[in-house]
Amino acid sequence: MIHQNLPPLAVHQLLPLPTRLNADIVHTGLGTCIAMVDSDFVPHPDLTEPINRIAGYYDAVNDKLYNTVPSTEVNPRSWHGTMTACTAAGNGYLSHGTYTSLAPDAKVFLVRTMNDKGRVTTETLSRALTAILRHSEEFGIDVVNISVYADEIDHTESHPVNRCVEDLVAMGIVVVAAVGNNPMIPIRPPAAAPNCIAVGGLDDKNSIADDDNEMYHSTFGITTLGVQKPELIAPAIWLPAPILLGTAQFEEASALCALDAMTDAMLVHAAPSLMPYTKIAFPVWTSREVSKLRHAIARRIESELILNKYYKMVDGTSFAAPIVTSIVAQMKQLDRRATPREIKDVLTQTAKPLPDVSRLIQGFGVVQQRDALSRLRLIRSSSMSN
User: Fold this and answer.
1) pLDDT tens digits, residue range 158-212?
2) Confidence label for 11 from pLDDT (cuts 50, 70 and 90)
3) Could you tell me the domains of the chain?
């Protein structure tokens, strides 16, 4: 039996992040700059259209500073950084604003740290943070997001990465770091730095309700200096991130989504032409069985976590941290005078702990964006009236 009018079977529905967080979106990060320290980047439309918001690019591997990302060529190291940058400051351009960050007007200063062997060394990470400190005034950097980490398990302030983090905070720059995704591994720099805001993960079930929230499998612990990490948790799963244009993954997502939306008759006709762009097994390509075709398409979309041809779902504290970073950008737009200490205090004091979950694992709890902005407004209003 052929059902011509059924909707697509497999393409996921994902709530926009501002909706899931019940976010106050009056402030968009306008006038702020986020330094993203990550693997590497390409200039994605969610950062460059309709206005290019990439303030600069520093290659910490080769110690070179550029006015913008020097290459649009995608390589394996480009993915992680581009995704985290769009989580922090993407405007959802390719989704017509649906998959926007909380700071879609913030500028970004992008910092490559991954070498050609796929490693992020302590030396390179230290060089990256030192460069941010050196160029912070030039690019107007307000907050640093770090979703990579050093190899050493060193909680002291003498570790070069921790020392750089402390220097940045002392200069008035907020530093946010992902804690990692393995509860069995100790905290590492930069998340171990005492004055950074270390972020763990929340599984909010892609829902606006909070009664079924659960912890994500984050790294946690007390550092040797007695500092609890993470301080906050934020959504770390069911998160939208860009599929990079011009890649085989983009071609496959485009083909799968087109096939998924077709009527049965169109699907049977088009499958042999479009399925070679996918990783669906060859024998399926010429199948005349609609159910077999749809099942294969649905399984592939599911396995690749495809939202549409431009976006997929990702997970990890690497993406929870940029959410907090985007909130910090909003706070800096609201109050340019807010210090790293004030911002950290407001975020932790307004966080909402998960019930029946140890504070050791979650820190102060789930970041509450709306409450944090309200608290900061109240503090500043009170200080001005006095």
Assistant:
1) 999 999 999 999 999 999 999 999 999 999 999 999 999 999 999 999 999 988 9
2) low
3) 17-242+313-385 (3.40.50.200), 248-309 (no CATH)
Give me the count of residues in the chain.
386
Exposed e or buried b per residue across 237-257, where buried means at least 16 C-beta atoms within 10 angstroms of its C-beta: bbbbbbbbbeeebbbbbbbbb
Tell me how far apart the alpha carbons of residues 164 and 85 are, in angstroms, rounded to a whole number: 21
Tokens, residue 294: 């749809």
Tokens at residue 268, please?
A: 């049977």
**Model confidence at 331: pLDDT above 50:** yes
- Structure tokens given for 20: 């899931």
Amino acid at the residue 278: T
Q: What is the DSSP letter of 384?
A: H
The terminus-to-terminus CA distance of the chain in angstroms comes to: 75
The pLDDT tens digits of the residues spanning 235-272 come to: 999 999 999 999 999 999 999 999 999 999 999 999 99
Q: Which of 86, 22, 58, 138 is nearest to 326 (CA)?
A: 86
